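tool=predict chain=A
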Amino acid sequence: MTGFRLAAFTLIVPDYDEAIGFYCARLGFDLTEDIDQGRKRWITIAAPGGGSRLVLARADTAGQKAAIGNQGAGRVWLFLETDDFAQDKWRIETSGGVFEEEPRHETYGTVAVWRDPFGNRWDLMQRS
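tool=predict ok
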């Protein structure tokens, strides 16, 4: 391999299985690793279309618990691309995600902000 590539980043969650249930069982992400390490688990998930993986990290300390849903400091910080906006918007809504706005059309495509059950703000977007 030459150079760097962004392989994964951490998403702090309240509970491993609750997060797996939402992202994998309901949204259709792939559970790529679930390794018991004693007091914690190494869990990675990936969107079915590819891209970087998410490492699901269970919050243990008060500071970590306070960061759940606020890792982006109130901003959208997760971006999910789709080839079928209407279908995936429906999937997110029926799985427990909440859209903050109606879809809007930008120069780069259709986009709408939504929150997962843990409070993380995402963009769902379909490129033009």
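The chain has two domains: 1-68, 76-128. The chain is about 20% helix and 40% strand.
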